[in-house]
Fold:
Amino acid sequence: MVLINFLYVQVYNYIAQKDARINQKLSEYSTELAADSREIAAAAKRDSSAMKGIAFLTMVFLPGTYTAVRFTYLLKMKIGPHDADFFRNASF
Structure:
């Protein structure tokens, strides 16, 4: 009976050691994953800032560009005052 208890304790200790090694490796992988996640979050924040800048520049310059193109088109057509209603109602 003593031998069975001794073997039982030995097997239990062996399993506990294997479990501890697995948990240690898992902890190391989790630490690496957390570091990678921080890097990805920082890159996403930089990308978001760049996208906000591009959107701002678009909002500033797009209306002026549209107006300039519209007037240029009207000037190229050399329209008179009687033709202006046609272009005002047209959709380009």
About this structure: The two ends are 95 Å apart (CA to CA).
